[in-house]
Automatic annotation (TrEMBL):
This is Lipid II isoglutaminyl synthase (glutamine-hydrolyzing) subunit GatD. It catalyses: L-glutamine + H2O = L-glutamate + NH4(+); beta-D-GlcNAc-(1->4)-Mur2Ac(oyl-L-Ala-gamma-D-Glu-L-Lys-D-Ala-D-Ala)-di-trans,octa-cis-undecaprenyl diphosphate + L-glutamine + ATP + H2O = beta-D-GlcNAc-(1->4)-Mur2Ac(oyl-L-Ala-D-isoglutaminyl-L-Lys-D-Ala-D-Ala)-di-trans,octa-cis-undecaprenyl diphosphate + L-glutamate + ADP + phosphate + H(+). InterPro entries: Class_I_gatase-like, CobQ_GATase1, GATase_3, Lipid_II_synth_GatD. Keywords: Cell shape, Cell wall biogenesis/degradation, Glutamine amidotransferase, Hydrolase, Ligase, Peptidoglycan synthesis. PANTHER family: DETHIOBIOTIN SYNTHETASE (PTHR21343), LIPID II ISOGLUTAMINYL SYNTHASE (GLUTAMINE-HYDROLYZING) SUBUNIT GATD (PTHR21343:SF9). Substrate binds at R127. It comes from Micromonospora krabiensis. The keyword Lyase does not apply.
């Protein structure tokens, strides 16, 4: 951690905040505070400079236009690249995941991404909308992913990143894998918000940010209830 408190930045709430993904910031903040960690939460709009000294950066989903604009501004700003070079954690969801890669399509045009993750995105034939679930890379040691997806893009992974999960329900990157991670950078197509539906993923980001490998367990009754309710809904929908 860079300072006494855990610094979390929610990037561009004015552009990339359309799918409830701001809840990810709230979940991280709450889970850190419940363990006695002071948290400083910063919301940085797209007309402001991005501080490079925070511990965790969160980027949410967005429609094509705001996604392209957000990527252009992050490229011009350079703060996220400096933060990553210093070892900060980055968590991107959907549009925020795609723009971490080398390129993505928005409104039929190819845009350069931030090149922080070795991924590139094009468009699928159909929009992927619905439940998204998968078995997470065993090296991350966390239970299956549970989420909701809504995107037109499809994502190819290069050799220097690993898929976050193998898809069991939904599309994710391409119907087979979902999300990607490398070092302390992690992206997913999962809304929900993702960290409310996947508290173990929130704790993984907190462990990466703090270097504390054993975080005290929290009461996850409500998240567990939500996860099993969604699992049951997926199973019911799959029955003939
Ligand atoms: N605009 C992107 C797409 O449709 C991302 C959508 C999203 O963030 N939900 O693929």
């Amino acid at each position: 951690m860079s300072t006494e408190s855990l610094r979390i930045v929610w990037i561009y709430p004015d552009l990339l905040s359309t799918y409830g993904d701001r809840g990810n910031a709230l979940i991280l903040q709450r889970r850190a505070r419940q363990r006695g960690m002071p948290v400083e939460m910063l919301e940085v709009r797209s007309d402001q400079r991005l501080p490079a000294s925070a511990d965790i950066y969160l980027i949410g989903g967005g429609e094509d236009g705001p996604q392209a604009l957000g990527a252009q501004r992050l490229l011009a700003d350079g703060g996220l690249h400096r933060a990553v070079a210093q070892g900060s954690v980055v968590f991107g969801v959907c549009a925020g995941y795609q723009l971490l890669g080398t390129s993505f399509f928005a409104k039929g045009t190819k845009y350069p991404g931030l090149e922080l993750l070795d991924i590139s995105s094009d468009r699928g034939e159909t929009r992927a909308v619905g439940e998204l679930a998968g078995d997470i890379d065993p090296r991350l040691g966390i239970p299956p992913l549970s989420g909701f997806e809504n995107h037109g893009g499809r994502t190819q992974l290069g050799p220097s990143v690993s898929p976050l999960a193998r898809v069991t329900t939904g599309i994710g990157n391409d119907g087979a894998t979902e999300g990607a991670w490398r070092g302390k950078l992690l992206g997913t197509y999962s809304h929900g918000p993702a960290l409310a539906r996947n508290p173990a993923l929130a704790d993984l980001l907190l462990r990466w940010a703090t270097g504390v490998h054993q975080l005290p367990p929290l009461d996850d009754t409500w998240a567990d209830r939500l996860r099993s309710e969604r699992r049951a809904a997926v199973a019911a929908a799959a029955r003939p």
